[in-house]
Amino acid sequence: MEAFTQFLPVLGLLLLLLLCHYKRSIRNNTKKAIKLVAPEPSGALPFLGHLHFLRGQAPLARVLGKIADEYGPVYTLRLGGRRALVVSSWQMVKDCFTTNDRNFAARPNMAISRHMVYNKAGFALATYGPYWREIRNSEVKSFINELSLFSSKKANKASVVDMSKWFENITFNITIKILAGKRFSNTGGNEGYVKAMKQVAKEVDEVIGKWLDEHVQKRKEYDGEKEADFMDVMLSTLSKDAEMYGHGRETIIKATTMVLMLTGSESTALTLTWALSLLLNNPHILKAAQKELDMNVGKQKWVEESDIKNLRYLQAIVKETLRMYPPGPLAGPHEAIEDCYIGGYHISKGTRLIVNLWKLHRDPQIWSDPHEFRPERFLEEHSDLNYQGQNFEYIPFSTGRRMCPAITFAFQVVHLTLARLLQGFDLSTPMGKPVDMSEGLGIALPKVRPLEVIMTPRLSTELYQNL
């Protein structure tokens, strides 16, 4: 008995060691168990992964949305040798851009950044002021004036216009005027030039380089005192020996100009095209917007930017358009800097993040009748939502550290252009047929068919003449 008593401390120590080992084993197994990976569709091919899933006759956002219907709001794909995480619920988006915001601040090293944006030398410069505002105002005036001149050539004062091209021209002109002080006619022989501007890097580089040389020479003549457009601002902001991430001043300015030129105008034109298409297919909403304009602005003067704040229904129309047709239905790609967890799933370093905004904005758990165009939702149950990326249910311009830097500018252009158009013209479709809403393939959501509209001036002739 005495021997057993002497053995008790040793036995207790052994039991303690066994207990510690057991707890450590449970903890390690738990950690392994926690490393759940997001679901992945079957059918991946060697080398290609799931790339073959992405080809077909539907826009990429719809294809990824269909996969989400089967695998849930978070899943992974293998895109060649890369792994991508696709998310489409606001909870997952919030997890990505709050808890893991810093981790997903990186952009993937993609070929388009290396070859089309001077090896990622571009940066966003969000400068707004009287000059920008005056350009928007003058270009929208020119846009309405040219439309009225075009329609007045017809004896019956009504004419069929391809609004898709007109929207492309006005947004392109606003962008180019702000960037380099240039402007191109909406009609005539410049159409080919505009198309050429969107082609290969070498051609665009030559054009932008020529513009930059002109600005440098003018600054020498005026001793740097005359600042007007974006290039002038950047030349005055960056010293001659300025360097960012190994890039000199000239490269930085050219890269930033190219990014804004190639992306800024197209997304705004698409938003205007979809907004007008939706209005034409819902004439009662179009009439309600015109009624709001008549009540708040009248027919004796043109609507101005200062009036937009009072046009709540017009603002709701733009918000609803962006819900259904976000400028980038798939948010720009991000890349995980290190391992992390999203929705309880382990995400490895280097995984690319794809946020399906199109699917998010049509989530029936958030939006009643998600496929119905109903601007009233932003005056009623979703009146608290804005476009600034703070509400993860509605992020048409993405969110987080890498969200679109030109949100305010884009909204101002869309609001003023749409307001002037609705105030100045009665709009309908040829033969009264509904607008074909077919979407094009690719990352964006272009409209396949041209938007042909019959336009009839609804204000006095003097107002068009005085533009």
UniProtKB/TrEMBL annotation:
Source superkingdom: Eukaryota
One GO BP: terpene biosynthetic process
Known cofactor(s): heme
Key words of the record: Heme, Iron, Metal-binding, Monooxygenase, Oxidoreductase, Signal
Signal peptide annotation: 1-25
Binding-site residues for heme, renumbered to this chain: C404
GO molecular function: heme binding; iron ion binding; monooxygenase activity; oxidoreductase activity, acting on paired donors, with incorporation or reduction of molecular oxygen
Keyword Heme in record: yes
SUPFAM superfamilies: Cytochrome P450
Pfam families, A to Z: p450
Family, per entry: Belongs to the cytochrome P450 family.
Annotated protein name in UniProt: Uncharacterized protein
